[in-house]
Amino acid sequence: MTGRAGAGAGAEAGAGAGVLPVVIPEFTVESRPFWDGLAEGYLRLQRCADCDAVVWYPRGLCPQCGSVSLLWFTASGRGAVYSFTVVRRTAGPYAAVTPYVVAYVELAEGPRVLTNVVDCGPELMHIDQPVECVFDAGDDGRALLRFRPVIS
User: Fold this and answer.
1) How many helices and strands, by DSSP H and E, does the chain display?
2) Which of 4, 69, 106, 150 is packed most tightly, with the most Cβ within 10 A?
3) Distance (Å, rounded) from C-alpha 19 to C-alpha 42?
4) d(C-alpha 81, C-alpha 146), whole Å
5) CA angle 24-132-87, nearest 5°?
6) C-alpha distances in angstroms, 126 versus 21, 74, 100, 109?
7) Distance (Å, whole) CA 70 – CA 105
8) What is the pLDDT of residues 26-35, one digit of tens each?
9) Angle ∠(134,135,136) on CA atoms, nearest 5
């Protein structure tokens, strides 16, 4: 897992693309440990103490068994591209950085997360591509979870 402090101000998104903005959503009580982990350079997920299911997205109860006994753990930060699309045209803060990749990454722990894949030109993306997480930090120290290809 790699931190990319200042990535919002200088990390390359891919061939021909600009820098992806770091737009951080508001935290909830349930999601704060996840966001705090990203700011510290760790991917933290929840696991149900009753049925052992890994839970994504952060929430107050297990979607498998309904238990409220959820524990936080540090995940590997590794996964594979499950599905992706290349965004070539959009509005808002991302408009100036096209093309960029939006992907579902299946984590080694099981859940699939919607994210960006960076440090890779869109033409090089493929399904089942091994990826590892990076943490793109904004100016305020908060970070977003993104992924980049694993280089063997």
Assistant:
1) 1, 9
2) 4
3) 22
4) 12
5) 55
6) 23, 27, 14, 20
7) 22
8) 889 999 999 9
9) 115
Give dist(CA 133, CA 3) in Å, integer: 9
pLDDT tens digits, 104-142 = 999 999 999 999 999 999 999 999 999 999 998 887 888
How many Å apart are CA 146 and CA 19, to the nearest integer? 13
Cβ–Cβ < 8 Å for 145, 113: yes
- Give me the pLDDT at residue 4, please: 52
**Side chain identity at 109, as an amino acid letter?**
E
Domain ranges in the chain?
2-149
pLDDT digits (tens, 9 = 90+) for 43-66: 999 999 999 999 999 999 999 999
The pair of structure tokens assigned to 40 is: 């510290």
80: its two tokens: 């594979």
In 1-152, the DSSP E strands lie at: 2-4, 44-48, 54-55, 70-74, 78-87, 100-107, 112-117, 130-137, 143-149
